[in-house]
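TICKET: design request
STATUS: open
ATTACHED STRUCTURE:
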């Protein structure tokens, strides 16, 4: 189960990197977004630190590290839900309105592929569950 959690975490991170790259390249960090910069980078930083802690846990086999990784995932998930809640109206607006020539350009997150957002969320939920189950000792490590 520990390795499955690592695999799902890495797949989740790949989707996150794709969205972060899209967001940055479309001007999200320069104010062209409905997603707050601290939320984006807080989500990224906590997830990255948690992944490093998880890898160290796999090497050192210290159960406390599994719990630390899980605790780090809690705010990561909360920040992810905040971003999802702010992204949904942007996505819906994409399907119903077209900006006119005088309007500001579309928010950076409007360019996120729906399949990447959905896969990132799905793999994230699975990762949190696998990390929790591993920390609890379910599945024999």
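STATUS: resolved
RESOLUTION: sequence designed for all positions
ATTACHED SEQUENCE:
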């Amino acid at each position: 189960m520990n390795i499955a959690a690592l695999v799902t975490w890495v797949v989740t991170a790949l989707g996150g990197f794709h969205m972060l790259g899209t967001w940055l390249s479309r001007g999200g960090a320069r104010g062209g977004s409905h997603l707050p910069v601290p939320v984006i980078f807080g989500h990224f930083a906590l997830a990255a630190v948690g992944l490093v802690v998880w890898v160290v846990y796999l090497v050192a086999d210290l159960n406390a590290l599994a719990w630390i990784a899980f605790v780090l995932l809690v705010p990561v998930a909360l920040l992810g839900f905040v971003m999802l809640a702010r992204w949904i109206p942007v996505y819906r607006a994409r399907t119903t309105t077209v900006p006119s020539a005088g309007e500001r350009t579309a928010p950076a997150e409007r360019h996120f592929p729906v399949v990447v957002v959905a896969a990132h969320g799905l793999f994230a939920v699975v990762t949190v569950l696998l990390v929790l189950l591993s920390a609890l000792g379910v599945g024999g490590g």
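CLOSING REMARK: Residues 2-98+107-136 form one domain. The mean pLDDT is 92.
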